[in-house]
Design goal:
Bound molecules: zinc ion
CATH topology of the domain at 21-144: Jann2411-like fold
Radius of gyration: 20 Å
Oligomer: single chain
CATH architecture of the domain at 21-144: Orthogonal Bundle
Length: about 200
């Protein structure tokens, strides 16, 4: 029986709010707690454009559908581990094994050229680089800095490296500004209500 996928198909540029490879990668499924989260890795071409826009490759060997499946599996494993870390729970062994397997493969390798350097990679190499980044974060002192964005519905995880650990949003340009604008509107509404009442 055909069932419509709950995932909306969107073709647009990817977002990199955190500046951490693996955390931005888990953000390719946006608004995770919505009924219809927004899936960005909808096709091999979309996966390739993520690798390209992330800056880890100059050129990726065209991905196939199996690469998209592997990417989504890796992403969900990383997300599960991040969630466990945020909840103070032990890491799930299956998710750890999946991330470790991906990291064990060769990663992307820059090559020196006369014009500078160049990085050509396969999807598996690019995913290995993402997995290694996740291991660095989840297995090191930075794990203590993990937070989830405070904007309701965003669900993006990030590392709070701000002084005093006071960062509230995955990115100020998006979520921070939206929340500030909402707070401003609420304040104005309140003020006009007080003025009307007075
Ligand atoms: Zn956010």
């Amino acid at each position: 029986m055909f069932r419509a996928s709950p995932v909306r198909m969107v073709t647009m540029d990817h977002a990199f709010p955190c500046g951490n490879l693996s955390l931005d990668f888990i953000g390719t499924l946006r608004a995770r707690r919505d009924e219809s989260p927004t899936e960005m890795l909808t096709s091999p071409a979309q996966l390739d454009s993520w690798f390209d826009e992330s800056g880890i490759v100059d050129q990726v060997t065209a991905s196939r559908q199996t690469d998209v499946r592997a990417a989504v599996e890796l992403r969900e494993a990383i997300y599960g581990l991040v969630t466990e870390r945020l909840a103070g729970k032990a890491y799930d062994r299956t998710a750890m094994a999946l991330v470790n397997d991906a990291a064990r493969k060769p990663s992307v390798v820059p090559q020196l050229t006369r014009d500078g350097r160049r990085t050509d990679a396969t999807a598996a190499q690019a995913l290995s680089t993402v997995a290694r980044d996740a291991i660095n974060i989840l297995g090191g002192p930075e794990a203590a800095l993990l937070k989830e964005c405070s904007r309701p519905g965003c669900t993006q995880a990030y590392l709070d490296t701000s002084r005093g650990g006071r960062r509230e949003w995955c990115a100020m340009e998006t979520c921070g500004n939206k929340m500030k604008a909402a707070a401003y509107r609420a304040r104005k509404r309140n003020e006009s209500r007080v003025a009307t009442a007075g």
